[in-house]
Design brief:
Elements (H helix, E strand, L loop, with lengths): L12 E4 L5 H16 L5 H11 L2 H9 L3 E8 L2 E9 L12 E9 L8 H15 L4 E7 L3 H9 L3 E10 L2 E11 L2
Parallel strand pairs: 4-5
Antiparallel strand pairs: 1-2, 2-3, 3-4, 5-7, 6-7
Length: about 180
């Protein structure tokens, strides 16, 4: 499927994921993770992360978890992006109360630059506000400069760092936060 022209952008639909979406979400999550990180990490580490993180059963459990909100972006009933908000743990460097984690945020590479990410980020902010959150935090790989620039554009700023294990590789994620109020 080819990306839309600007005129087709309103045809995008962003909705909460349902249990019936687990297989499509697993496929999208694996594909977008590979597209983003496979070229700059070892195949073994990428495979280990995908195996541990993106099975249909894992996605089904996440969709059903009260700590996770999954938003799915569709075009013509095809999943092209997703975001997950996760509550339960906030690092010490995120000092404001009422913060939720933007745990995953991915757009299919064919749709990058088409306005999909912007629409999804607006939906993420609306969902977090609906949950009564006052801030959003995230971890982003220090070498993912495109993502860091995108998050800065939306008002996120760096407040710390933590280690993210990709397979057996300990990588540094910058922790970024944004107020919602």
């Amino acid at each position: 499927m080819s990306p839309p022209t600007i005129a087709l952008a309103p045809a995008l639909r962003i909705r909460p994921a349902a249990s019936a979406d687990a297989v499509a979400l697993a496929d999208l999550a694996e594909r977008t993770f590979r597209d983003t990180f496979a070229a700059v990490n070892t195949p073994a580490n990428v495979a280990a992360h995908i195996s541990a993180s993106y099975s249909p059963a894992k996605q089904l459990a996440e969709i059903g978890s009260p700590q996770i909100r999954t938003l799915l972006v569709e075009h013509d009933d095809c999943a092209i992006g997703y975001a997950q908000l996760r509550s339960g743990h906030t690092p010490e460097c995120v000092t404001m109360g009422g913060a939720i984690e933007l745990w995953h945020f991915y757009i299919d590479k064919a749709w990058l630059g088409c306005g999909v990410a912007q629409r999804l980020m607006e939906s993420v902010f609306a969902e977090a506000a609906k949950l009564g959150m006052q801030a959003i935090w995230l971890g982003v790989w220090e070498h993912n400069l495109r993502a860091i620039a995108f998050y800065r554009k939306y008002g996120f700023h760096e407040v710390g760092a933590h280690v993210f294990h990709l397979g057996n590789d300990a990588q540094t994620d910058s922790i970024m936060v944004r107020d919602l109020v």
